[in-house]
Amino acid sequence: MLTPWPSLHSALREFFDPLRTNDSRTDFFAIYRRESEEFDRDYAKKYDEDLNTSLIFVGHLISISRAEH
Amino acid sequence: MTAAYMRILIHTMNNSLFPDADPSSTTWNGPPPGIVAVQSLLYASLTTSLFAAFLAMLGKQWVNRYLRNRAGSAADKSRDRQRKLDGLEKWYFHLTIESLPVMLQLALLLLGCALSRYLWTTSRAVATVIVAVTLFGVTSYIFLTLAAIFSYNCPYQTPPSILARALIRYLAHNNNTFARSLRSLVASFPSIEVLRRILRHIRAEVCKALKRSGPILGVPEGAEHIPRAAITSSSPVRIFDEVSTDWEVCKADIRCISWVLYTTTDTDVIYSTVRFSADVIWYPEIARNLSPHILAELFFDCLSDGKVVPGKSEHASSIGMALASVLSTQLSMEPGNQELKALCERIDDDVRWIPSSGSTLALVVAALGFIADITTRGYHSAFMRRKLMENTRADLPPTQKLWLGRVILQTLWRWRRVMGPTGVLKFHAMESICESFNADADNDLIPAILKTNCFLMMAISLGLQIDIRDLYAPNNRCTPSNSSHGFHSLDDSEVLQTSLYLFSQQLTRSIKEGTATSSTLNLVISTLTHVDPFQTKHDREYEFLWLTDILDSGYSDNERWGMATTVVRLLGRGFHSPGPGSFPPGWIPPLLGFLSLCEKFGPAEGSTALRILSSSPPHPGFNATILPILTSVLQPAHPLLSRNLALNLFHNFAPEWFSQQMEGVPHKDLIALLQAVGDPFQPLRPPLQDRLPVNTTDYEPMMAAIVLIGFASSDLWRDHLRRSNFASYEEILSTEEGKRVALGPIFHTATHLWLEFLCTSAKVITAIKRLEELQCLNTAEAVLFWAWTVGVMDVGDQGAWGLIERSTLDFYRTHGIRRLTALSWHITNKITEDKHVRFLLACYGDRSCQVGNVRPPVPIGQAVRKLRPRNFEELRIAKACQLRRLYHLFGYDPVTWKEAVAMDEVNQEMDVLPVQLVRPIQFTDWGCDYP
After folding, report:
1. Residue B21's pLDDT band (boundaries 50, 70, 90)?
2. The overall pTM is greater than 0.80
3. Chain A residues in contact with B49 (beta carbon < 8 A)
4. DSSP state of B307
5. Does the distance separating the beta carbons of A24 and B272 come in below 8 Å?
6. Is A35 in CB contact (< 8 Å) with chain B?
7. pLDDT by residue (tens digit) across B590-636?
8. For residue B576, which phi and psi values (nearest 5 degrees)?
9. From residue B889, how far is each of B430, B684, B845, B900 by CA, in Å?
10. How far is CA B204 from the centre of its chain?
């Protein structure tokens, strides 16, 4: 049988394939990387400082309670 | 210790045992109770702080782990990072880390208590100081906590304050059983009325604070708006599930998009993010995961005072497109969502009066208004619809058309859901929009999906109860055998056929009920152009063309004709197959019905139907009913193409028809047909008057001629054909152009046929005279010959004889003896007058004198035998003929005689020749190439 029209689904695939939108995709992920690295740096720094404070505090506390013993 | 107590117990019960047991011996000899309590508190403090240290160490590891990147592309890294970030949120990483200070505070409190307790026993003075400091610490902590609960802006946030605020928020925002019972519990204590008032105040304060500055518990801003997948129970309306897409990747992408939109403030970043999201947002899976609120905020940022901020219109368009997609998708899933309704109202208010300027932005604004319209003013409001219609131009880029189609489709869908299954949307603006979508339907670049969207839009606008999700229900599939595998295993065309089948059922019903207008139907059909009707496997699937239903429906003839024309055009567009495009037998009756409609309204439209009908090899579905319909097509008022196709059709089926089937046909039908076919040269006339035909395929009188042969093969019709009027042949001959055309093969054939069946002797004479004038002697001779052969010429006719005399002489001079011999064979059977014989003899004598050793054949001899010789010459010829030897004629030369004898074999052949010529004449005899 001859199919003079392109199949619906080949057209669908062609149009809906996310990989086709390469330009905006590349742009977006470049920006995402930039933004996320910035964010993560702050994020990790925040938690790191929190934890460091806690650890210092724990150290002091332990030494005091040992002294009490 | 325990053993000592046991001894005492046993001794008390039985004094004979353990005589030495002394109750006083069970005195406590461990550390004093005060010390134990102090030690316990101290150890609790120590272990708590150790555990906190352990968690802190792990926490540092986790953070490092989070920072570590996997290998791969930027997109992979990003998705991995987003996945980890989502995991952190989902598992309340921040809570775990925030619990460390709580533990440390607890450890500190324990330490303070232990110290106070211990020093109380040793030194009251020191203990007082310690207790005072500890109490001060606890009090200030409580105060800070309360302050933090009261004010979100208070910088002294502590874990209990965060907890309390979370509880208040829960009470304020949730309305489930637990929250309600908790509230009623609080309300049931009259003694805490004051507290309740305070609480209400606090709650109001906190709610205000929350609204102003966002959420608590350290969640990134707006993160609680990110709906997680599979929270909503209603599944998204997925129209094209079968598209192979990695949904996991898409979801990861959308999480990335959400995250960027929530965290960034940079407009460029937002713009490229929205641009990307506009590319992928077509998936309902994605659109439902993106918050419309954040997009709406971004969109509103581009507006000020009901106008778009200059220089931001491109941003506004991109963001608006994404917003429209997201909003329409989510609304179509949850039409009753209050938050979305509120958002719609806001959009509607802001967008309504943005001046439209025909740009992309205007279209986006119109679409947004169109989507948001329902919540405030109802579907009948025509303002935004008109705006949308005005802005939907035919030259939109395909991506925008696709986007718009999707948005409109989902909105219509939502309306259908809102209005219930019985609601019919009379939304005629759809027609013009679809029309502009289909403006360049022949362009292959336009994706079929767009047409499908149009098709679905029209379906919904028509009020058809089609739900695309029905396609994926197992019991609705065309192929039950595949139902166990799910729709993914269905092949593309099957899904399409199934959807068409469902659609056709609905549309058929509405055609029968008369609810579909013809213009709507035309549009629906024009969107169906991606379907190849010739791929239908069963007759049942043919139903989607609705031709039968249209023809049987109660519409007026004019409307039926218009609708059927669209359908037939669709068929014709699919009918490009050069080979035998076989069509199902079910097509024949509707196509014939359409042809008879065309007779009334537009003969030109019938050619498509004729083309389809005549393309197939002889089809068993045809019967005598075709005759009156095709006959009317052959009328001169019809286009040449149609007539040729009809003739072709007759030709294809001629053998069957003229043998058996035609016998049952009413006589008047056949008469009408013959009169219509009547003049095969009719097609030649108009082109001859205006211009010369470029080639013979422009018009095919041949076909008519061949049809006539078919008719003539039946004796029944021969007589009728002879009586028909063939005036146009003479007209052709009389024109100057006709001279040239007459030399062509068409003319030969036409002349042949004309003479064979139809001429009278007078017409033959006219024709031959003309041919002589035109120097077409070959043709003229052939005409004459054939006229004799079939016996239409009467030798007794004076005019005819004169013709014979002239032409015979001419032929005789210019052509070989064979033709003349053949001619004479027929003539001599008929001549009765001496002068005719004499003429012939003279001819032969003359000829033989020139050529030499050639003798007149037997027929001449037979003729001469009837003749009474008037002189010696005649006697000599007659004698020679009687002797079947003609050497008398040529003198008595022995040499020539011997040669003549030697040529006897040749003579025998010559005698036989006329017998051979009795067979029906071949075209090759006429010097033309036509087979």
Report:
1. low
2. no
3. 57-58, 61-62, 65
4. E
5. yes
6. yes
7. 888 888 888 777 777 777 777 777 766 656 666 667 777 777 777 76
8. -100, 0
9. 98, 51, 8, 12
10. 57
